[in-house]
Amino acid sequence: MSMLEVAGLGHAYGGVDAVSDVSFVVEPGELVCIVGPSGCGKSTLLRCIAGLLPPTRGTVSLHGDRVVGVPSDLAVVFQDYSRSLLPWRTVAGNVEFPLRDRGLSTVERRSRVEEALSWVGLSEAAGKHPFELSGGMQQRVSIARALAYRPALMLMDEPFASVDAQTRADLEDLVLTVRASAGMTVLLVTHDIDESVYLADRVLVLSQSPATVVETLKVDLSSPRDQITTRGTDTFVRLRTEIARQIRR
Amino acid sequence: MRWWVRVAVLLGALVVWQLVSVLAANPYFPPPLRILEAAARLWPSAHFTADVLPSLARVFGGWAAASVVGVAFGVALGRSRALADYFEFVFTFLRTLPPPLLVPVFMLVFGISTEMEVVTIAFGTVWPVLLNAVDGARSVDPVLADTARVFRLSRARWIFGVVLPAAGPKIFAGLRVSLSIALILMVISEVVGATSGIGYQLGTAQGASDLPGMWAWIALISLLGYLLNRGLLAVEHRALAWSRP
Ligand SMILES: Nc1ncnc2c1ncn2[C@@H]1O[C@H](COP(=O)(O)OP(=O)(O)OP(=O)(O)O)[C@@H](O)[C@H]1O
Ligand SMILES: [Mg+2]
């Protein structure tokens, strides 16, 4: 059974369409990237999939069950990452917070927090508060929080937008590694075409607002991927050119 | 500013006051040294346990009850559209009633008793806490609310772990306003309807035309107000350390 099935999904804000007619399927363990022009409705689409926003038209199903409320086993890395952190909790406290209602022992929670913080390179900052961190560090906290939660489906909305190039490459590889080891399914929104090709098994290209899927591209690059060699292959170059042409259209 | 500058200014003001009041020799405005004399006679005496402590207990009792009720209702109203629709009108009406007006009513209901004073204080102080808590609970960032939904926080964790801390700065602002109102209502209700307390002693001193005594009680009230506010600020400072980057 597919992990996620989106069928004829549309959303209008007060009569104005933001997402017009989107259908696609994500298989378990797949990493799918969504690219599309700014303001085309990507965040709206993710919010509908997460069950945060009731779609105006169409359906979302997870494991074959129609999504009405927020499903369990789902995590979101929000585009407004800094506003999604609890300012009164430390970095470790923020990562640990959602684990408290998951029936985990204190020891288990602590080890997950430590592990996730070391993944994103923030072990040293565990005791700091969000306001003491740079934007990129806050973004990594919200990624660590989602990873520590170990969802079956991870939705990420431009998760690497405000980190430097090196950290970005590290985080991309981190997502690939964790995805492989935890068997996590990932749906990731990005405006960076290269990033979508590097990360994805498939790339969905969205149209201008209101969004529809204009193209689905299978990324037949070998795994594991490598920041230097993968990006130099002919397949990579061909795919990014193709996507760029689709988006320009 | 350095603390000794402040103390110097305060002492200077007292000296000027002493000189002016001695020169003016108006019996209604006794010199500060006479007031100090009266204070030394009244404050530490039997009045401390018989009057000062009961007054403080009434202030704390009424204010604490109002705070609990105000925060609980405020958070509920702030997070529930339906509740707000039902109750907002009632509350807007009730809070425009000046609490001292209700003292005669409460006196009939409860008699001259501690209940009467505590209820008066609680009724007068609940509104700033409640309205600020409503505001604070509504101010939870929508992205934070979405985050809580995505991670499927339990109701208790959502309220106590997200809404209350987010509303904290507003709630403390309400608590400070209501604490000063509590002090005023303590005095008013004790002057008219009590057999003990600072307000009662103020009324008694007035009856005996003991002006230095009256001023001594007034000075005690403002000193208490200052100390209570300082104490609350210290608590607030610790609780809201995160909100002052
Ligand atoms: N809460 C809202 N109310 C009304 N209109 C909205 C709301 N949220 C988004 N929109 C509109 O819907 C459209 C799509 O917005 P959305 O945030 O989904 O786009 P996006 O693709 O995520 O953009 P970006 O690339 O900037 O993140 C935009 O035109 C936006 O103005
Ligand atoms: Mg967006």
From TrEMBL, chain A:
GO terms for molecular function: ATP binding; ATP hydrolysis activity. InterPro entries: AAA+_ATPase, ABC_transporter-like_ATP-bd, ABC_transporter-like_CS, ABC_transporter_ATP-bind, P-loop_NTPase. It comes from the Bacteria. SMART domains: AAA. Coiled coil: none annotated. The keyword ATP-binding applies. Keywords: ATP-binding, Nucleotide-binding, Transport. Pfam families: ABC_tran. Residues 4-233 form the ABC transporter domain. This is NitT/TauT family transport system ATP-binding protein. It comes from Kutzneria buriramensis.
TrEMBL record, chain B:
One of its GO terms (biological process) is transmembrane transport. The keyword Hydrolase does not apply. Residues 52-236 form the ABC transmembrane type-1 domain. One of its GO terms (cellular component) is plasma membrane. Keywords: Cell membrane, Membrane, Transmembrane, Transmembrane helix, Transport. It is found in: Cell membrane. It is a multi-pass membrane protein. Gene3D superfamilies: MetI-like. The chain crosses the membrane at residues 60-80, 101-130, 179-202, 214-235. Belongs to the binding-protein-dependent transport system permease family. This is ABC-type nitrate/sulfonate/bicarbonate transport system permease component. It comes from Kutzneria buriramensis. The lineage of its organism: Bacteria, Bacillati, Actinomycetota, Actinomycetes, Pseudonocardiales.
